[in-house]
Design a protein that fits this description.
With 479 residues, this protein is α/β, with parallel strands linked by helices. It has 18 helices and 21 strands. Strands 1-7-19-18-15-14-12-11-10 form a nine-stranded mixed β-sheet. The longest helix has 22 residues, at 248-269. The radius of gyration is 23 Å and the shape is globular. The two termini are 36 Å apart.
Length: 479
């Protein structure tokens, strides 16, 4: 049973009063402190929209009234489409979906214990793998092809996704020309520019820089993507005690302002642009000031971020499911599970990085995608909760069976047993004797067998005529 788009919201790390105080503080920061905008185009757009602008310092301040007017222009729901309609997802409210993420530089191989630089072929294989992993609902481009020059990265990453999975493809972008190439490619695959807008099979990501800064390059990218009307995610990545206050509440203020900066700009450029409020908030390791991906505080911050997004009525891009472990061990499992679970129960719309990533998001691993698919199936079962109605309370059956009876052969048991209880595809539930008879394989060994089988049996690619048109029009694609 595939579970997606289920309503979360049962976990609320913030009270309504706390949400309001974070909102009020964020508005004070935007009004009184402001944020730095290094894109000349974006700076002019903010000024034209009524912002106070200090051109020498590249500083922008907006009234809270104007901020809320711009937020209200943004759609509260965004449909992200797959090439196959069964993979369409509707971000907004408290509906929960999960996906891949990151721009990992390395691939880890647990059979050798070694890692190597990721290649374009790795990205293609991961797309093939994700196509068949039902608990991963969206394919966010997870690796950086080390062999390509940056000018060719954008279009090749998106082509690798679109040519190997029918799920929606989301990704970060690096160049303005890359944005244009990717959009043209998506138009060809969708059938036309109009059809791409009706059914967006791609979306893009541009990040703000914490604290309170919009980079020149990313500011220009936001403007270009918003002008094209392509769905856009505007996440921020404040690190507690490094690029935000060390307190979780202080981090949430910075995250809110930084992500809203991108949201506001999209609505100034093109009111109604489908934009996603985003968080990659995380902890800092104070021993050496490095980023931590698997801390429980990261789960709390992103769960709280979901509540803030719901307050603004904006779709939300959360971060969870990663681990700081370098191998597929117990730490890898509990860190990945805990952060994904907190985000999902809070109603985070799209939990990115929820599969495959390890080692501070530097590395990904084929086997971990399969393991995380299992974790996410359990996470989504938890989101589904417990249905209480006449059928599930089963009074008549209890009365019929009576004291000392059993429910094994009941029609009610057969009817509910598969949907009511998550059916694992990877976990071992055999007795020790049965497990040993099957080879006594560890979780990652079973995952490795599953990953190899899925990739070997993958048979999807773009229709031949469409594929040929893409390759003939876009010279930078490496096929």
């Amino acid at each position: 049973m595939i579970r997606k788009g289920l309503a979360g919201g049962s976990f609320k790390p913030l009270t309504e009063e706390s949400i309001d105080r974070i909102h009020q503080t964020a508005m004070r920061v935007i009004e009184d402190v402001g944020f730095e905008v290094n894109s000349e185009i974006a700076l002019e757009l903010f000024k034209g929209a009524g912002a106070w602008v200090d051109r020498e310092k590249h500083l922008v301040r907006l009234s809270r009234k104007r901020v809320m007017e711009l937020i209200e222009m943004a759609p509260s729901e965004i449909r992200l489409c797959g090439q196959d309609e069964k993979h369409d997802i509707l971000l907004g409210g408290q509906r929960v979906y999960t996906g891949t993420g990151g721009t990992a530089l390395y691939i880890y191989h647990p059979d050798t214990g070694q890692k190597q630089l990721a290649t374009l072929d790795d990205l293609k294989r991961i797309a093939k793998l994700v196509e068949q992993l039902d608990n991963i609902h969206l394919f966010m481009l997870p690796t950086y092809p080390s062999e390509l020059p940056v000018e060719q990265v954008d279009v090749n990453r998106f082509f690798a996704g679109l040519d190997n999975t029918t799920k929606h493809v989301m990704g970060g972008i690096y160049t303005l020309d890359g944005v244009k190439q990717v959009i043209r490619m998506a138009e060809i695959i969708a059938g036309s520019g109009e059809r791409l807008h009706q059914r967006p099979i791609i979306s893009m990501i541009t990040c703000s820089m914490s604290p309170l800064k919009m980079d020149r390059h990313y500011g220009d990218l936001v403007v270009t993507i918003a002008q094209a009307g392509i769905p856009l995610v505007c996440p921020a990545e404040p690190l507690c005690g490094a690029t935000s206050p060390v307190t979780l509440a202080g981090n949430l203020v910075i995250q809110t302002v930084d992500s809203l900066t991108g949201v506001l700009l999209t609505q100034i450029v093109n009111p109604g642009t489908p934009v996603v409020f985003g968080s990659v908030s995380a902890s800092t390791d104070f021993r050496d000031l490095k980023y931590l991906a698997g801390s429980v505080e990261m789960g709390l911050l992103n769960a709280a971020g979901a509540q803030i997004a719901q307050f603004y009525k904006l779709p939300f891009y959360a971060t969870g499911g990663m681990t700081d472990s370098k191998v597929l061990d117990a730490q890898s499992g509990y860190e990945s599970a805990l952060t994904s679970l907190l985000c999902a129960l809070a109603g985070a719309n799209f939990i990115h990085d929820a599969a495959g990533l390890m080692e501070f998001a530097l590395t990904t691993c084929y086997e971990k995608y399969v393991i995380d698919n299992e974790i996410l199936g359990m996470v989504m079962r938890a989101v589904e909760g417990i249905a209480v109605n006449d059928e599930t309370l089963a009074f008549d059956l209890i009365k019929q069976v009576g004291p000392g009876g059993n429910f094994i052969t009941a029609k009610h048991t057969r009817h509910f047993m598969r949907d009511e209880h998550y059916q694992p595809s990877l976990s071992d539930r055999d007795s020790r004797e049965e497990w040993e008879a099957r080879g006594g394989k560890t979780t990652w060994e079973r995952a490795a067998e599953g990953a190899k089988e899925i990739i070997a049996n993958h048979n999807y690619s773009l229709p031949a005529a469409v594929r040929q048109q893409v390759l003939s029009e876009i010279a930078d694609i490496v096929d």
